[in-house]
Amino acid sequence: MDLVEEQQDKVAQYFYARIFLSDPRLRDLFPVQLDVQRARLLGAIVTAVQTIEDPERFDEYLRALGRDHRKFRVESVHFGMIGQALIDSLRAFAGERWSPAYEQAWQDAYRVIARKMLTAAQEDTNPPFWHAEIVSHERRARDIAVFTCRTMQPLPYRAGQYVSIESDRQPRVWRVYSMANSPRPDNTMDFHIRAVGAGWLSGALVRRAEVAT
Q1: Strand partners, 194
Q2: Mind giving me the DSSP string for 110-147?
Q3: d(C-alpha 150, C-alpha 72), whole Å
Q4: Bridge-partner residues for 70, per DSSP?
């Protein structure tokens, strides 16, 4: 990564262009606004590679990543396209400094990453995501709302944990929020949300979310 560190934004743009050129249907897996997402997938892969010398951390990180990516509807066939796009991007921006040794090292590393993520995803018995409906929504200020939602099936958690949330108001945009209550028998959870800047999801949850009818 040192070879392309100063051009990470361009690498990310090229990376996504290669993915979508390989199969235009993959565009539907990503949010309309790619500004934040652009760095996330590439960043996750780079983080995985950086932990490869710490087997325990490497395995834990990738298993969590594999389970988490189920909600994006990622399939096994997509991993090959993403890996090729990654190596094509690194090669393009490393230029003459790229070598067969770098190529092989990245191919080997990515192969391990994909295998661990796929294994964790296949072994997970939980659903990829839980459907929920909003049962109350209250604006506390111009940019703050408190809402309660109820999941269609039990979602076990402990006080202090958080979940990733997506809204039909902003499809395929996932952000993490902490539950504001301890677990309840009726499967309801409270969230206190502040709309921050150009936050696509937080703005939608504060200003556009509605109680299910």
Answers
A1: 144
A2: HHHHHHHHHHHHHH--S-SS--EEEEEEEEEETTEEEE
A3: 21
A4: none
Q: Let me know: does 79 contact 117? Beta carbons within 8 Å.
A: yes
- What are the φ and ψ backbone dihedral angles of 153, each rounded to 5 degrees? -140, 155
pLDDT tens, position by position, 162-175: 999 999 888 888 89
Which residues pair with residue 137 across a beta bridge? Answer: 147
- Name residue, tokens 């003459």: 96
Residue tagged 């839980």 (tokens): 130
Burial classification of residue 48, based on how many CB atoms lie within 10 Å of its CB (0-12 exposed, 13-18 middle, 19 or more buried): buried
Nearest to 12, CA basis, from 74, 93, 81, 68: 93
pLDDT in tens, 120-162: 999 999 999 999 999 999 999 999 999 999 999 999 999 889 9
**Two tokens, residue 139:** 């604006």
The model's pTM is 0.76
CA distance 50 to 70: 23
